[in-house]
Amino acid sequence: MARLITHLRHVDLAVPDFEKQREFYAGVWGLTEVATDSGLSFLAAEGSPEQYIIRLRKAEEKRLDLIAFGAATPADVDALAERLGKAGVQLISQPGEITTPGGGYGFRFFDVDGRTVEVSADVATRQHRKIEPRESIPVRLSHVVINSPDIDRTREWYEKHLDFALSDTLGHPRIGDVMHFMRCNPQHHSLAIARAPHVSLHHISFELRGVDEFMYGTGRLLRAGVRMIWGPGRHLAGDNTFSYFLDPHGNTVEYTTELEELDEDTWHPQVHDFTKPEVSDQWGTANQIDEVITRESFNDVDRGVFVAPPV
């Protein structure tokens, strides 16, 4: 299937305690700060060609600033902007030059829930390196999960306007669907949409080299006193490992590895019963999911809905 969006580039966060957040991601979490500006920090994964995968911005209120995706060419960026404009999607900016690290050509718009989304092409690649055995730092950004009060509406919007496809769904026998896993390439999901009482960030996931590195990284964070809320384990949908932690501002962040790659021509989405223990954790090694974990995943109400970030 031909898509205008190719992959997930970066996730941008605004936080009141900028220095504390910056110290966490550039320190124990294992990212590399590659550029700074007044109240801004751009953090890269050593194994990724992306210029950066996390941007931090100092702000009075915590919020998700934006989610950025890649496109193959400037022509694809223009085609997507034209499509969204004709469909009545609110554009924040028209396609043009991007001035963040790596440059490029792109534009921003609001999704159906009011999140800011950026799509760009021609961003210069960063010199990166092979992550060595037992080196327990992120290789790349894996996926992002967003909270929505109406996950079917949000799913349909991403399918219609951005060509995302449904890979799988988590369902509950009493309350219905609770999460949709969406893909923009053969990876099982680059985006997932979770059921929640309000619009917010659910979690950001970072890919490690392999299971060994995933476990070393999990252990390093635990020894450093970072709060782990769930894990380590292995999900059924996506078949990836998971250890979920909280960053200093209460955002859930995940170490993962071995996310499934699909044959898109033959794949058929399934609905997995989330109440079955093997669905949430095939290994049976993680702590049981409970109300505390669920509440942490709801996160704080996002104050950035239909408000474009200043940079």
Tell me what you see in this structure.
The protein is 19% helix and 35% strand. The protein contains 6 helices and 17 strands. A 9-stranded mixed β-sheet has the order 14-15-16-13-9-12-11-10-17, sandwiched between helices. This is Catechol-2,3-dioxygenase. One of its GO terms (biological process) is L-methylmalonyl-CoA metabolic process. Keywords: Dioxygenase, Metal-binding, Oxidoreductase. Residues 7-122, 140-258 form the VOC domain.
Key terms:
311 residues; alpha/beta; 2,3-Dihydroxybiphenyl 1,2-Dioxygenase, domain 1; nine-stranded mixed sheet; eight-stranded mixed sheet; dioxygenase; VOC_core; dioxygenase activity; Glyas_Fos-R_dOase_dom
SSE order, as H and E?
Answer: EHEEEEHEEEEHEEEEHEEEEHH
| Strand content range | 35-45%
Within the CATH hierarchy, at the fold level, what is the topology of the largest domain? Answer: 2,3-Dihydroxybiphenyl 1,2-Dioxygenase, domain 1
Per CATH, the superfamily of the largest domain is: 2,3-Dihydroxybiphenyl 1,2-Dioxygenase, domain 1
Return the CATH class of the largest domain: Alpha Beta
Question: Which helices and strands occur, and which strands form pairs?
Answer:
Blueprint (H helix, E strand, L loop, with lengths): L4 E11 L2 H9 L5 E6 L2 E5 L9 E5 L4 E9 L2 H13 L9 E2 L7 E6 L5 E6 L18 E9 L2 H12 L2 E8 L3 E8 L7 E5 L4 E8 L3 H13 L4 E7 L6 E6 L5 E5 L13 E4 L3 H4 L10 H8 L13
Parallel strand pairs: 1-4, 5-8, 9-12, 10-17, 13-16
Antiparallel strand pairs: 1-5, 2-3, 3-4, 6-7, 7-8, 9-13, 10-11, 11-12, 14-15, 15-16
